[in-house]
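#struct-help
A.M.: can someone run this one for me? Single chain, 267 residues.
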Amino acid sequence: MRPSEGSTGTSQSLARGLAILSTFHSDRPLIGVSELSRGLDLSRSTVHRYVATLAKLGYLQQDPDSKRYRLGPKVLDLGFSALNSMDLLEISAPHLRKLSDETQRTVNLAILDGTDVVYIERCRSARPGQQEIDLNLHVGARLPAYCTAMGKAIMAFLPEERLEELIAQIDFVPRGPKTLTDPKAFREELVKIREFGIAVNDEELAYGLRSIAAPIYTQSGEVLAAVNLAVHRTMVSMDDLLARFTPAVTRAAHDISLSMGHRPAPP
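D.P.: on it. Structure tokens below:
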């Protein structure tokens, strides 16, 4: 059946790409361009263009013998990320609430999506002055990873090859008065985060905003997400922020990681 031609507010290209991916299933793992063209009622040249794009991005792979296509590893990544995120939300909720109650601060949970962090959970605090730093953020909000504590907390633990791919895609533009705009300085910052296990944002994203974040690990030891605590510069100095709140933030991240099945190696 032909994918929807697209109504107001929808993307025809996205719909067609997803329709192609949805055609593959366990009983039909290999499909050729001609078959896709007939099944989706699209011209062969149109299908070939979409398939070539999906293959280049890793969502499809071409079988060298039959020249037909199968789903690529990127699709698996999406599926595992979705499952992990659902588990993560359920597991992390009580720990985030406890952290927010203990510190009387808004705390957040985010995952990495490309070069952005995506907020997947927030526990707001009613503490006076807290709304000044909420930046109208909400679940689903996206921010550039390079100038956020949570983004840096995740990126610091990526495999080197993947990290370099992302850094090459980042436009290091100033977002706040102290944004790191030099890729070399950014890499040096990530080295410190790997060493100490805590990431900071000292007015890198916006004026007056400070935060600290710690990584959350999956059972396999990969960093899946990060948790942070944010304050306004008028509330606490950077040194006091680290001294007062690092133990609570790292403990929350550690407890969530344990609940996800991660068992850190003994020191």
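A.M.: thanks! Helices lie at 12-23, 33-40, 44-56, 73-103, 149-155, 160-169, 183-196, 238-259.
D.P.: also worth noting: The chain has eight helices and eight strands.
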